[in-house]
Specification:
Number of strands: 28
Strand content: 15-25%
Number of helices: 31
CATH architecture of one domain: 2-Layer Sandwich
CATH topology of one domain: Nucleotidyltransferase, domain 5
Strand order of the largest sheet: 6-9-8-7-10-11
CATH class of one domain: Alpha Beta
């Protein structure tokens, strides 16, 4: 099925996608106006470019309908002559490319992250690249920005991007090798570090003018005076840790990554920013060390592949009323796919009669050799395949066989393939790393010195150049206050990473065994119910069970058009069916996640100090909340439904995190801060009075929603629990169906209509000013295309004007949520800044141990000497409560315990 391009010839603007979708294939119209992409394209053309569809030429890089198949380079080559003839006929002044393949056809091997929204000169035309998924709410701000840039260049308001503003020949990058300490000028200095914590390589410094010095670790004393200067960093949470190991501490700093994050429309990567603002395409770190890194990875995997890991567990697949066994590839076979196998001829040494062929072939196959056909000379076999493991077994048999083989090339992305393998087969790969350790890493010592110096120096030079550009834009967008706040908390977050969180490795291993027993019980019960044993973590098996055998309705489809069995789908099905297998699947998955993600792995993250040092970042979550990884301690669900040993499962996991001897853990959070921010921002008189009078907000809400006297709403009643779910849900744009599910999980069964009545009563009868605030935020989004938080943090919402109900509803939901949730996080950060600047220094000056450990949403964790805990509690609560003045008082609560699970 071929979908030809359509539109005027010639045309001023040509839009080129990647391939036709289902709608296009059915109708023969590219970007069909009823398809999701087509609807959004029509909207962007109307609202931004002021053009109708029939004024634009629309086509695809590959006009052939490929179904589920991804576009390949072969597809592109097959059709590029047709695209060239279209370009010749249309003669566009401007071209918008949607998607990676379409963009690369014009601009070469570029990344969209690097070039989106940048108008490029191309053969007399101007090409403006952007993303293809126009209906993706996360990508929409960048797509909107790309169309806006297209409008500007078409209107002559901006010039096409110049890719040659700075030329490599003009750079002056060199290593500083003198032993003298550098007397840096009393001005901001851009600094970048190289290496990893525990093994720093060095740093680079720049004062602009296309020049920079590199100072390696062996000569780091020359950079001692950097600590006295104001530094410009990119990704300060990484650089501060390396600088500390190099003996450089106590400096003030700016961070261009934080600036880019706050501006929302900028890429955060330094290489991408350098391309945008300097026209320089720098090599990435992996491009520089890639060959050496791949060599290390390949050598390591060669060792791993010499062991026999046995077959992968078989899977059962339902096909109607029948069941078949699926045999996934073993770990050894997956490793051979990464490293490449040997193939070619194997010859027999000695007798070559029929019996000899039979015996020798059987022996080879027993070793794991895949034997091909007998060769023409009847001396052996052709098309034989020898894996790494089989090759090891074959080596001692040189008196029986001779072979002529070539090895297929190893994968180019060895590390990425290994990471995928770790996700697919976590138990097997964990066992590998227990035996041989983790895959080794390369660093800049693995490349020639000139390359290492150019790479390191370029980072500092680029950071210095982009700093004034981004700083000016921060000021133009009114983001100075939000930026200042983020910078003020970075030292405290760095301290959290550095100090780490003490954990009991033995406890987690014992908990893993207990979880395994509980999972086995679930499997037994599932088998008892359906008569066969399945793997609840297998989407294929669960889909076969639910939709083929139990005939439950499909709720949604995956990107490959398979029925989804995601957790939210199982929850939705529980509203439609009381079949007992559904909660068992959910229960098993929760146990499996807790075991695989935490119980079996957290102890592996323990450092030599017995503490876990997670990676924390402040440039990932739009609300400004921290993101945590390696491992993600923030994802432990404290409110999990599963009870294990008399405690909720999340608390059992958290019990493995402990204070060191003589110390305790403290947890402080702002009491109902989002509801207080809602009262402040809406100025609702009833909601404000509740907090001014110190009343129970959920009791009051239930009284108003259900028209009950306050004394009839008791703690633990379904009315109060329902009111609590409605109140917190309003901030997150909860729907009637979402509320219904939440209540059902609490054991409260209400119809969708009753849930909608509760939401309406909250907004109309209880707190009408909240509804006014919601409408105001929607209007703000419609007027400006974005909304702001209390301190001015921006969230772009171009979907607010979409005709797509899902996109528009999501934008409307976020318009309020961003204001409330982000403002609440800003108050938390203001409190953290006060604690870092006043509380901790006061305690340290008296010789007390008191260290920040983690911040999880609205919870701040601190470890301190047990004797000083009461004083710490008073000081921290005071700092949090006085962080900012609202129309209602801010309350803070603190608890002290010896384990994280025992807090609160």
């Amino acid at each position: 099925m071929i979908v030809p391009g359509c539109g005027p010839k010639p045309a001023r603007l040509m839009i080129i996608g990647e391939r036709p979708g289902d709608w296009e294939a059915k109708t023969g119209v590219p970007f069909h106006p009823r398809a999701a992409v087509g609807k959004e394209l029509t909207r962007y053309l109307h609202q931004i470019l002021r053009l109708d569809r029939d004024e634009v030429y629309l086509t695809n890089l590959v006009p052939e309908y490929l179904g589920e198949k991804e576009v390949t380079s072969e597809d592109v080559r097959k059709w590029e002559s047709l695209l060239q003839s279209e370009l010749d006929e249309v003669q566009p002044e401007f071209i918008m490319t949607l998607g990676r393949f379409a963009t690369r056809w014009f601009l070469g091997n570029v990344n969209l992250e690097e070039v989106y929204a940048l108008p490029h000169q191309w053969n007399g035309s101007v090409v403006v690249p952007t993303y293809l998924r126009l209906y993706d709410s996360d990508l929409q701000p960048l797509i909107w920005y790309s169309f806006e840039q297209c409008r500007r260049v078409m209107a002559g308001e901006t010039e096409p991007f110049d890719r040659t503003r700075s030329k490599p020949s003009s750079f002056c990058y060199e290593e500083y090798t003198l032993p003298d300490v550098i007397n840096f000028p009393d001005l901001p200095i851009a600094t970048d570090t190289e290496g990893i914590p525990g093994n720093p390589w060095g740093l680079s410094v720049s004062r602009g003018h296309d020049s920079a010095y590199v100072i390696r670790k062996s000569n780091i004393a020359a950079a001692a005076k950097l600590a006295e200067r104001h530094l410009i960093l990119h990704n300060s949470l990484y650089d501060i840790a390396i600088l500390r190991e190099l003996g450089i501490e106590g400096f003030s700093f700016d961070d261009t990554m934080v600036m880019a994050f706050l501006l929302c429309l900028e890429p955060q990567g330094l290489k991408e920013l350098a391309y945008r603002y300097r026209g320089i395409r720098r090599q990435s770190y992996m491009e520089v060390i890639g060959p050496a890194s791949n060599d290390l990875a390949r050598d390591w995997l060669e060792t791993v592949a010499e062991w026999d890991y046995g077959p992968a567990p078989e899977e059962l697949v339902f096909e109607g009323d029948h069941v078949r066994i699926r045999k996934p590839w073993s770990l050894n076979r997956r490793l051979d796919g990464i490293l490449g196998v040997w193939d070619g001829e194997i010859f027999i040494i000695g007798p070559k009669d029929r019996q000899a062929f039979t015996d020798k072939k059987r022996k080879l196959e027993k070793m794991g050799v895949r034997v091909g056909k007998i060769n023409d000379d009847h001396t052996g076999w052709v098309d034989c395949v020898v894996t790494k493991l089989a090759g090891k077994k074959l080596e001692p048999h040189t008196l029986e066989y001779r072979w002529e083989m070539k090895r297929r090339p190893a994968a180019e992305d060895i590390r990425q393939r290994w990471e995928t393998l770790c996700e697919d087969m976590p138990e097997a790969t964990d066992a590998v790393m227990d035996n041989v350790g983790t895959m080794p890493e390369a660093n800049l010592d693995a490349v020639n010195l000139k390359t290492a110096i150019e790479y390191s120096a370029g980072d500092a030079d680029d950071t210095y150049t982009i700093y004034p550009i981004l700083k000016k834009r921060i000021e133009e967008m009114g983001l100075e206050e939000a930026y200042k706040l983020d910078i003020s908390v970075i030292p405290m977050i760095d301290r959290m990473i550095h100090v780490g969180f003490k954990a009991d490795g033995e406890y987690f291993q014992q908990l893993g065994a207990e979880l395994a027993r509980e999972m086995e019980k679930d499997l037994d019960e599932i088998e008892h119910l359906i008569g066969i044993r399945i793997n609840p973590n297998s989407p294929l098996q669960v889909a076969s069970l639910l939709f083929d055998r139990l005939k439950l309705p499909v709720q949604q489809y995956t990107e490959t058009h398979q029925p989804s069995t995601a957790d939210e789908v199982i929850e939705a099905l529980r509203l439609l069916s009381d079949h007992p297998v559904l909660p068992l699947i959910s229960d098993y998955r929760e146990l499996s996640k807790m075991k695989g993600t935490y119980a079996d792995k957290l102890w592996r993250w323990l450092g030599s100090d017995g503490r876990i040092h997670p990676r924390l970042r402040i440039t990932r979550v739009p609300s400004g909340r921290l993101a945590c990884s390696e491992p993600n301690l923030m994802a432990i669900p404290i409110r999990s439904q599963r009870i294990l040993g008399g405690q909720r499962l999340g608390k059992r996991i958290r019990d493995g995190f402990i204070a060191k001897p003589g110390c305790v853990l403290g947890s402080w959070d702002l009491d109902q801060i989002e509801m207080r921010v809602l009262a402040h921002r809406s100025n609702d008189p009833t909601l404000t009075t509740v907090f001014l009078n110190g009343e129970d907000i959920h009791q009051k809400t239930a009284s108003l929603v259900f028209s009950l006297p306050m004394e009839q709403v008791i703690k633990g009643s379904w009315q109060r629990d329902s009111a609590k779910s409605v109140g917190f849900g309003i901030v997150y744009g909860i729907s009637a169906q979402g509320l219904q599910l939440q209540l059902k999980l609490r054991g409260i069964n209400r119809t969708e209509e009753e849930c909608q009545d509760m939401i309406d009563a909250y907004l109309v009868r209880a707190y009408p000013k909240v509804r006014s605030l919601m409408e105001d935020k929607k209007a703000e989004a419609r007027r400006y295309g974005y909304v702001r938080s209390m301190l001015g943090r921006i969230r772009y919402l171009p979907g607010i004007h979409s005709s797509n109900n899902k996109l528009r509803s999501e934008a409307e939901r976020v318009s309020l949520n961003h204001d409330i949730q982000t403002s609440a996080q800003e108050i938390e950060k203001l409190g953290m800044a006060g604690i870092w600047q006043r509380v901790l220094p006061a305690l340290w000056s008296e010789g007390w141990y008191c260290e920040p450990i983690l911040q999880v949403h609205d919870e701040l964790l601190i470890e301190c000497d047990e004797k000083v805990a009461p004083v710490v509690d008073v000081m921290i609560r005071n700092e949090l409560e006085e962080a900012v003045k609202l129309v209602v008082p801010i309350g803070a609560k603190g608890t002290i315990a010896r384990t994280w699970g025992a807090l609160k």
